[in-house]
From TrEMBL:
Keyword Transferase attributed: yes
Any one annotated GO CC term: membrane
Sample GO molecular function, one term: dolichyl-phosphate beta-D-mannosyltransferase activity
Entry annotated with the keyword Transferase: yes
UniProt name for this protein: Dolichol-phosphate mannosyltransferase
Highest taxon listed in the record's lineage: Bacteria
Natural source organism: Sphingobacterium paludis
Amino acid sequence: MSDSLVIIPTYNEKENIEKIIRKVFSLAVPFDILIVDDGSPDGTGNIVNALQKDFAGRLYLEERSGKLGLGTAYIHGFKWALGRHYDYIFEMDADFSHNPEDLIRLREACLLGADMAVGSRYIKGVNVVNWPMSRVLMSYFASVYVRFITGIGVQDATAGFVCFSRKVLEKIPLDQIKFVGYAFQIEMKFKAILYKFNVVEVPIIFTDRTEGVSKMSTRIFREAFFGVIQLKTESWFKKYN
C-alpha cells in the first residue's frame, strides 16, 4: 500500500494517459494514481477505466460531468485523498511536461522536512524545453509579478508539479479556494506560506507537451493577473494560525 497519491486532472488526453500511468507505476517508489477526468469527449476516461483491471487497488478514476477547471479538479482530488490514508499528495500534468521520475525527488524533499515541495522551472535559471520564447517570458515574468505583489519568495509561483504533505491540505480551507487556472496554483502556495508551512523548490526541467492540445487561454491568464492582487488584499484582513 502506497503512502503517496498522484492526482492527474484530464480533459482530452487520450494520446498521453496510458503512457503516463504506466510510467508512474514503473517507478522504483510506489505511487497510487487518481485520474480526475472532466468528461473527456475523446474517451480518456474509458482508457483509464480499462487500465484499472491491470492496476487494481492502485489506479482510481473520478469522472465529472464537464470541463469544470483545473483548480476544482485538484480540490476534488485533495478531498478524495484526505478521505483515505495518503501522507503525500501530488499534482502532475498528464502530458509529460512534468517528468514522472521527479515525483521521487519531490517526495524526498517532503520526507526531509518540506511541507510542500514545488517542481520549479526557475530556481536554477530557466529550465523549459520546447516553449516559444514569448511563453517562456510570460511565465517567468508572471512569477516575478507574483513575488512583487504577494511578497512570497517562490521563484516558480505558477508551477503545477507539487507534492503536499497531508497536513497542508488538512489546514488550508479547500472550500474557500477561489481560482481555477494558474491563479489556483499561486493561491495554494500563497496560502501554504501564510499558514507558516515550509515550502521548498526542487529544480526540474519542464518539457512542453508533444501530443494533445494545451489548455492555456487568455481567460486563465487574466484570472491569474488580477487574482494575485485579490489574494494579497484579502490576506490583510484575515488571520492565519
